[in-house]
Amino acid sequence: MVERVQTGVRLEKRLLKVLKGLAEYKDMTLGDLLEGIVLHAFEGKAPLGEASLAVVADLKRVYGLDLTAADSHRLREDGRP
Predict the structure, then answer these.
(1) CA triple 46-7-75, angle to 5 deg
(2) How many Cβ atoms are within 10 Å of 77's Cβ, its own excluded?
(3) How many separate domains does the chain show?
């Protein structure tokens, strides 16, 4: 058993669309998808298999997501330092 809490996380708009699309494809909630991704990452394991990565590639194209892991620590919003 786990205890879940509601959180207000800010994410890049296109990234969120891709995550929601992947969660829908996998018939799971966005929260469950994020938990799985994070738990895999904490163990140094790849969170997504080939089929899921193909879906992600399609969703990235649909939503115009061109960000990569290299961008992760350089994202800035207008009006924010």
Answers:
(1) 60
(2) 8
(3) 1
